[in-house]
Amino acid sequence: MMPVIDVQHLTKTYKTYKRGAGMGQTFKSFFQREEVVVHAVNDISFAIGQGEICGILGPNGAGKSTAIKMLCGALYPTSGEIQVLGYSPARDRKRYVGKIGAVFGQKSQLIWDIPPIDSFHMNKAIYGIANPDFKSRLEELTELLDIAHVIEKPTRVLSLGERMKCEFVMAMLHRPDILFLDEPTIGLDVIAKVKIREFIRQMNKKQNMTCILTTHDLEDVEELAHRVIVINHGDKVFDDSLQQLKLFLGEKKRVNFTFAESVQGTVFDNAYTKVIDRLSDFQITLEVDTAHISISDFLEDISRKHRFSDISVKELPIQQVVMNIYENAGGVDE
Amino acid sequence: MKRYLDVYKQGMYSALQSAAAYRMNFIVSSLITLAGNILFPLVTLLIYRAGTSFPGWGLYEVLLIQSVFTMSSGLSSLIFGGVLWTTMSHVREGSFEVILLKPLNPLFFIIATTFSIDSVGLFLGGVSLFIFAAMHVGAIPVLFWLQFAGMFIAGTAVLAGLSLMMAAISFKWVGNSRISELADSVLHIGKYPLPIFPKAVQAAATMIIPVGMVGFLPASALLGRVHASDYAAILPCFLFLAAGIWIYRHMIRLYEGVGG
Ligand SMILES: Nc1ncnc2c1ncn2[C@@H]1O[C@H](COP(=O)(O)OP(=O)(O)O)[C@@H](O)[C@H]1O
Ligand SMILES: [Mg+2]
């Protein structure tokens, strides 16, 4: 299969200047600035096929946004080659960006003071979308995302979730071949997250649309991706299927308990449970291997022995994921 | 081409919508800009009332210069006024990418989406003052009107170029709100009869940063007071605009990280 995205030895370094702390240092940096080189993306190669959903996972500062900016043509690589749909994104930017869509979780494309519907019309003009197409797509998208009732309100009064859904409409009206998402679920509540993930899955299925999303939330990847690339400090440390990642990580969840009674002295460790953190005699975080016991069985078991007032079940934090990958792979070069 | 026109139209529509959303704010800020710019012809009026003058220039002639200056500023800031602050806020928030995601010339896109309705007051104020002053300087032949039109456009090009240069500077001086004052201070020269300035200033104001074309020269054309040599100043105006565009685009390329 011909890849739609082909990335070879992609590298981006930023040059910045060190700003000293304190008056003296600041004063000094006024006259003499110390150059700092940041290797944001470091010799990364990968290829992605048509219709794939690929998650780029990594902690804050890993280089995810930098990578996606380069893939979108908004940033020139320092070195390396990118081919997407036969274009070199940054060099052919103007022609290329008409074929892709993008949602940057922290950078809105909506016009703040006016209703989203007017921003949609702006995109209609920008991409030269014909009237009937615009109408039918808008109807379809607003229905899928369940936002027909918000698109006529001023953008500034919308909730974050509603706004993010509108950002997706902005990105999809021109029927892009590829959708790039930079932390699309950041800061959203659970319901909005679920809705947006469902939307991405549907677009992927219906239009065979390729989708690249960055995230620091393992759940996004588990829910959506067929393929996962993990980057850390600009380096690619993992690139395989979601199944493979799960094998690497094991099927683990973190459960935070707030017990109604002191559990001082209680031993929780066993074949499938590990104590991660004992914040106090009441608050404990356990890691549960769900390959051995389902979460509901596990909770039933605990509740038989102790009373608790609060629990939350979470995916492994991204730092842990990266650590597990290093441990499992053993030989991955830094 | 049609796509670009549609985008511009949609941009104007959005600007109107936004202005309507903040009606009070819009009215007040229009009035403030208008007041600020109407006050200074009043100063001229006071100068003449007090019996002094700019040598060789009558009151209405000076008012004509100042009204042309105001019209030109108003027009330029309607079209280009938003580029500076939009660029500044995008660079500060690191969101300039959003503009680069659109399949358009980024400079055009910024201009199209920042149509500054607020400046309509300034422009109309300039027009009123212009009509008032023009009625008092005697009949103006058609040929003079044509010359005026050409020079007026050239003068507006200078202001556009200046706006773009200021916006380009904001890529480097992120968040420096003083940048626009820099432009304003240079511009003041265009508000007065150029001959009252030293020769070196006159030369700079026609050839290097052609601010003379913003108010003084087009008004002189209406009064039939331009010389053949003054037409030579038209070319630098468009060069100045071209320089503004070039610098701005250069800064975008730096932002994209070309060789940076
Ligand atoms: N414009 C920039 N100038 C200098 N350094 C930058 C710039 N953008 C990002 N960086 C640095 O590059 C690294 C990667 O950043 P980024 O791509 O935003 O990571 P992520 O999106 O994974 O959080 C970080 O160390 C960040 O500080
Ligand atoms: Mg990021």
TrEMBL record, chain A:
GO terms for molecular function: ATP binding; ATP hydrolysis activity. Pfam families: ABC_tran. SMART domains: AAA. This is ABC transporter ATP-binding protein. Residues 5-258 form the ABC transporter domain. Keywords: ATP-binding, Nucleotide-binding, Transport. SUPFAM superfamilies: P-loop containing nucleoside triphosphate hydrolases.
Automatic annotation (TrEMBL), chain B:
The keyword Nucleotidyltransferase does not apply. Keywords: Membrane, Transmembrane, Transmembrane helix. InterPro entries: ABC-2_transporter-like. The chain crosses the membrane at residues 21-43, 63-86, 144-169, 200-219, 231-248. It comes from the Bacteria. The keyword Repeat does not apply. This is Multidrug ABC transporter permease. It comes from Paenibacillus albidus.
